[in-house]
Amino acid sequence: MRVLFTVFAAKPHFYNLVPLAWALRAAGHDVVVASQPDLTEIITATGLTAVPVGDELQLVRAFQGGPDDSGASPWQRLTGLNELDPQRLTWPYVLGVFTIGCAMEYEYLAGQRLLDDLVEFAREWRPDLVIWDALTFAGAIAAHASGAAHARVLFGQDHVARMFAVYRQHLAAQPPEHRDDPVSDWLAGRLDRYDHRYSPALDHELMTGQVTIDPTPPWMQLPLDLSSLPVRYIPFNGPTSVPGWVHQAPGRPRVCLSLGVSGRELFGAGVVSGPDDIVTVADVVAILAEFDVEVVATLTEAQLGAAGTAPDNVRVVEFVPLNELLPSCALIIHHGGFGTTGNAVAHAVPSIIIPAPWWDAASLAELLEQRGAGFLADDTVLTRDGLRDRIARLLADPSHRAAAAAIQAELSTAPSPHDLVPQLVALVASHRRQPRPEVAPCAS
């Protein structure tokens, strides 16, 4: 079958899809990946076929424009999809989330030219299946316009489906004259452009997929009633070479400090905690230098900042694949991105998570702490002394490593991307609306 993957131009989101894309390719299916031109070289470097669609996204510029005191740009804080406090989830709040999301965020990630290009390609190539990143709603629209079955892939906790369920509940409770529905309006406008009639019954499918491919373990998932296919998280850190020292046994405990691909490329340098006792990246490096450990800090020069020359026990490298580095580590300190957290969990390495101010970083940290496999270090507890204490506890107490190993063992029982392939074939058999026409044989 033909499989079209689509993802907005962000490396972490694309890397989350690569193991499944290659599982389908290895099983003999045709696979292409559509994204903005910024991602073309990155896609082809993985050995997959790229289909450039739309204009360049320039995500770095969007994220680094005008940061606030937390280091987050206003663009990052617009939608509030990850709000969990029931007291705040009023109709005005939830309506605002999707009004801003449809008008700005979703429109930014899936602009009109991208949609036009993607739908045109899908109608010409006729994929049997579209697999789309959970924020790339253009994939669902292109699948519907071309008659393909489609599935979305999560990159962490499913805040889209959770918030959309709250939105639909609130909407149904409003008097008819007050039922503003920006989601339906946004979807209807896009379907109409491609001569497809919108109906409210399509909302759920176009926002959450015909099925959801979920790489999060059950204890990380939000309680949702969705059709889902569990899959084991497989770390993919991008094509790279591995320095020889990575596989040399360290003479003392090795600690990794990483802000992940997102931290490196989107957020740059800045504060990692505050406001009462500001802790910078340079402070974290200095605190680690106090311990009898070998530190591998995957930081840029800008992120290292005031630390200047790194202490003797700190090796600063701009990039090293975590999948290769973490098996030799006793601890990782990171920002809580799903990719970095997934690597840590896959290799049974306890974490100290200084959560980035978006999506599920703080939630994942809380869940790891509840399992005994790490600590959440947020603004309420993270000071220089607090960080020093947590490093010492994780290095000295073997129970944290044992808890991480137990989680690793649980993950090994989940279906692999290879195991998922027959289920996706079955999805196509039951959901594809328009069979691809057979090509007539050439006359002899």
From TrEMBL:
The keyword Transferase applies. The keyword Glycosyltransferase applies. GO terms for molecular function: hexosyltransferase activity; UDP-glycosyltransferase activity. Keywords: Antibiotic biosynthesis, Glycosyltransferase, Transferase. CDD domains: GT1_Gtf-like. Residues 284-427 form the Erythromycin biosynthesis protein CIII-like C-terminal domain. InterPro entries: EryCIII-like_C, EryCIII-like_N, Glycosyl_450act, Glycosyltransferase_28, UDP_glucos_trans. Residues 22-260 form the Erythromycin biosynthesis protein CIII-like N-terminal domain. One of its GO terms (biological process) is antibiotic biosynthetic process. PANTHER family: STEROL 3-BETA-GLUCOSYLTRANSFERASE, STEROL 3-BETA-GLUCOSYLTRANSFERASE UGT80A2. Belongs to the glycosyltransferase 28 family. This is Activator-dependent family glycosyltransferase.
